[in-house]
UniProtKB/TrEMBL annotation:
It is found in: Membrane. It holds the Pfam family ABC_tran. It comes from Tissierella simiarum. Residues 36-322 form the ABC transmembrane type-1 domain. InterPro entries: AAA+_ATPase, ABC1_TM_dom, ABC_transporter-like_ATP-bd, ABC_transporter-like_CS, Type_1_exporter. Keywords: ATP-binding, Membrane, Nucleotide-binding, Transmembrane, Transmembrane helix. This is ABC transporter ATP-binding protein/permease.
């Protein structure tokens, strides 16, 4: 874990200001004029209180000293006093209006920036819990922070001006008083900054657990896990886990609140004693006639302004430090290196795919998921991948889809290394249904068009894709046809069966005019007849293309495969046609016969 978060000192606080230029640049890009006006208003706000003190002083002194003279001597200071008050009010109203508008725009911009960044992450980033934490922290904590830092910096400027101008008024009377006034706020602020740092440290350390807590509540408040939670009666267990995590958070939060409240109380009492003493000196001077009534009020008000400004100023310094720690998270996330698309070669059509001694380990695993895989497939051929669970079939497809590039060996497309081929160009030529394909809570039209969003309004193309996926009857039977909202999250949504969702996903894949179609284990949701039908249809439709099928139902693959790869524990142990592999009398034959026996037993049982 990052060592720098464990210590707090002034150097760190100053160092943390480093991110201010970045913050400013970000804010500048949102609304320039607003930013300038807000800055000006903050500066005016800083000096206005001192001017107000001086106008009050001159008004009161005028009243005291102009008895028997013309009322005009009092009227002028009164008009200035009233105008200044109104001016201050208008400025503060305008300022808060501009700030609110600015924050709305900024929040929107930040959330879009985070989404844009998330879009550039790779699959391995999403599988890395550290990156995931960064994303969550950026999303939940950091969006409001850039403006907070900016307004704190402006507050520092404004409070500093306020402090200097109020000090100047007291300086005129008794310079040594100033030392007494500023000592307590300095001590209390240093302490509070340490508390703020401790709070950040706690937040930082518990971000994994916070995510776990969020996940537990997500499971309980979504339909995704509802059935299992009900059937297995998991509610108590999940709530217990949620409570356990949150009890700990609450305990930590309460401890911090208790500490800061006690410390604030002690500092406040000491501050009141010092303030009381200075007030005594002012009143005494007024009593013996050393100062006029206007000056008395001016000194009293300056005293309270200095106290407020001092506390505000030092509080802002510690707040800026604390906010900067969060901002660091935000920029850490936003500045995560984006994998640059260096591969520039574009291909017209996928004609051949060749794996040469390809091995691959998932980033967080020691053992190889694929080891030394070599095979070649040409346009017009159908490849089937078979093997037991975890043998590496989906991993091979993920490599071919370009999700990971840290594999050993070479993957050649048309004889060119896949690492040199432009990923977007290649991606457009592959139509794929993953084992865990998405069921979008959108309309049927959108669900299909997401395969090639440019065609969303081209009904003939959508219809052709639906036909290819044998989904025509099903789509027609929906209450609003292709415009039907699917899923249950939104009103009038229609839930589909697993197999029906699969056909929608298949239509999505067919909407692409791809050169290579990959069907990763549709058997999870399709009955054997439908799977056979879909394999056969896909194979017919892709006669002059490449298709890759993954299934545990080997008899469905038998007729359509021009080549079968048999994987076991990440290794390619056999390859050939169905007949060749049966003749080989090896693992394929074992799996094939085992499957048939199981199905035969099932059939006998169902007849019985
Ligand atoms: N994202 C991942 N991170 C780490 N390891 C993974 C990941 N995905 C898969 N694996 C591991 O890689 C190995 C191969 O998994 P893969 O999903 O490719 O198998 P499969 O043959 O498709 O299995 P199945 O028939 O169950 O779908 C397994 O040991 C699995 O645990």
């Amino acid at each position: 874990m990052n060592q720098e978060i464990y210590s707090f000192n002034l150097k760190d606080a100053i160092k943390s200001l480093k991110s201010f230029p970045k913050v400013f640049k970000l804010l500048w890009s949102v609304r320039k004029l607003h930013l300038i006006l807000i800055t000006i208003f903050y500066i005016i706000n800083g000096i206005l209180p001192a001017i107000s003190i001086l106008t009050t002083q001159s008004l009161l002194n005028a009243i005291q000293t102009s008895r028997g003279k013309d009322f005009i001597y009092v009227l002028y200071p009164l008009i200035i006093y009233l105008s200044l008050n109104s001016f201050g009010y208008i400025i503060s109203q305008l300022n808060s209006y501009l700030q609110s508008i600015f924050r709305i725009d900024l929040n929107y911009k930040m959330s879009v920036m985070i989404l844009e960044k998330a879009r550039t992450l790779s699959l391995s980033d999403f599988e890395n819990s550290e990156v995931y934490d960064k994303l969550r922290r950026a999303q939940s904590e950091a969006v409001e922070r850039p403006y907070a830092v900016f307004s704190i910096v402006l507050s520092i400027v404004s409070q500093f001006l306020g402090l200097i101008s109020s000090l100047a008024i007291l300086l005129y009377w008794k310079p040594w008083i100033i030392l007494l006034v500023i000592i307590m706020p300095i001590i209390s602020t240093i302490y509070m900054a340490k508390m703020g740092h401790m709070q950040y440290k706690i937040e930082y350390e518990r971000s994994q657990e916070k995510r776990k807590s969020w996940y537990l509540s997500y499971l309980m408040t979504n339909d995704i896990a509802f059935k299992e939670i009900k059937i297995y009666r998991l509610g108590d267990y999940l709530i217990k886990g949620y409570k356990k995590l949150n009890k700990n958070f609450i305990k930590q939060d309460k401890k911090i609140i208790k500490k800061t409240t006690i410390a604030s109380f002690i500092f406040e009492v000491l501050d009141q004693i010092v303030g009381g003493f200075i007030l005594y000196l002012i009143i005494q001077s007024a009593y013996i006639g050393e100062i006029l009534l206007g000056n008395t009020v001016a000194y009293i008000r300056s005293l309270s302004n200095i106290k407020g400004n001092m506390q505000g100023l030092l509080g802002s310094v510690s707040a800026i430090y604390q906010n900067n720690l969060y901002i660091k998270q935000l920029f850490d996330f936003l500045e995560m290196p984006v994998k640059e698309e260096k591969s520039s070669i574009s291909i017209e059509e996928i004609k051949t795919i060749e794996f040469i001694n390809v091995s691959f380990k998932y980033p967080n695993r020691q053992e190889y998921a694929l080891k030394d895989i070599s095979f070649k497939i040409k346009k017009g051929e159908n490849l089937s991948l078979v093997g037991e669970n975890g043998s590496g079939k989906s991993t091979l497809v993920k490599l071919l889809s370009g999700f990971y590039d840290n594999y050993e060996g070479e993957i050649l497309i048309n004889g060119i290394s896949m690492r040199q081929i432009n990923q977007e160009n290649l991606g457009n030529k592959i139509g794929i249904i993953f084992q865990d394909f998405n069921k979008y809570e959108l309309t049927c039209r959108e669900n299909i068009a997401l395969g090639n969003i440019d065609l969303i309004n081209q009904d003939d193309k959508l219809q052709a894709a639906i036909n290819k996926a044998h989904a025509n009857e099903m789509v027609n039977s929906l209450p609003n046809g292709i415009e039907t909202q699917l899923g249950v999250w939104f009103s009038e949504g229609v839930q589909l069966s697993g197999g029906q969702w699969q056909r929608i996903a298949l239509s999505r894949a067919f909407l692409r005019d791809a050169d290579c179609y990959i069907l990763d284990e549709p058997s999870a949701s399709l009955d054997p007849v439908s799977e056979h039908e879909i394999f056969q249809k896909t194979s017919d439709l892709t006669k002059d293309k490449i298709s890759i099928f993954i299934s545990h139902r080997l008899y469905n693959l038998r007729k359509i495969s021009s080549k079968v790869l048999v994987l076991k524990e990440g290794k390619l142990i056999e390859q050939g046609t169905h007949e060749e592999l049966m003749d080989l009398n090896g693992h394929y034959k074992y799996l094939y016969n085992l499957q048939n026996t199981i199905d035969l037993v099932d059939d006998i049982e169902s007849i019985a």
